Automatic annotation (TrEMBL):
Pfam families: Flavin_Reduct. The lineage of its organism: Bacteria, Pseudomonadati, Pseudomonadota, Alphaproteobacteria, Rhodobacterales. Residues 18-173 form the Flavin reductase like domain. Gene3D superfamilies: Electron Transport, Fmn-binding Protein, Chain A. It comes from Roseicyclus persicicus. This is Flavin reductase family protein. Signal peptide: none annotated. InterPro entries: Flavin_Rdtase-like_dom (IPR002563), Split_barrel_FMN-bd (IPR012349).
């Protein structure tokens, strides 16, 4: 099968959503200029550089009460900071609860019964029980082709690692089983790993 996205695919569901998988989930917490807090998951998310450490996520829709974007990007525009919270399998239901199109004054921490903790390098809350949190300062927001498509880049200024996820000096993902996004409404979980040496190592 071949299709041009501009012509449509003719399938019951968009296959593009399932091609680039699995995708890590960035559970992004933000605080608006008015002090309101927001927590929402984004599966267009990844780390993009080592030195200095940098991450990105993309927001691809808008809400009527936020103009051309959603609460997360609107808050980051106002304050210039955000926190990425790593999602473990045990938090899947709480994460999913925060994905709803809630009004801008909804506190998703409270809505989903999630304990929060203060970040250290930025004025923002983080998910207290997450395996890891990345405190970030905004470096740039890039408007992408298409309505309401924005890529947000940030430099990591602080890292929290949950103690039980550190084993023999290594951040062990099998200690918490990262949740990943597949296509459509499907998710997966990482329960095994293997190692490969690069040529010349």
């Amino acid at each position: 099968m071949f299709y041009r996205p501009e012509d449509g695919h003719g399938l019951p569901h968009n296959p593009f959503n399932a091609i680039v998988t699995p995708r890590p989930i960035g559970w992004i917490s933000t605080r608006g200029a008015d002090g309101s807090e927001n927590l929402a998951p984004y599966s267009f998310f990844n780390a993009v550089a080592y030195v200095p450490p940098q991450v990105m996520f993309a927001s691809t829709s808008a809400k009527p009460d936020r103009g051309d974007t959603k609460d997360t990007v609107a808050n980051i525009r106002e304050t210039g900071v955000f926190c990425v919270n790593v999602v473990e399998y045990a938090m899947k239901d709480a994460m999913n609860r925060t994905s709803g199109p809630w009004p801008r004054d909804t506190d998703e921490f409270a809505l989903a019964g999630i304990e929060r903790a203060a970040c250290r390098t930025i004025a923002c809350s983080r998910v207290a029980g997450a395996p890891a949190n990345l405190e970030c300062r905004l470096t740039q927001i890039v408007k992408l082709e298409g309505e309401s498509n924005f890529a947000v880049f940030g430099e990591v200024t602080g890292v929290h690692l949950r103690d039980d996820c550190l084993r023999d000096g290594v951040f062990d993902v099998l200690a918490f089983h990262p949740l990943t996004r597949m296509g459509y409404r499907d998710y997966s979980v990482i329960r095994e790993t293997f190692s490969l040496n690069r040529p010349g190592e």
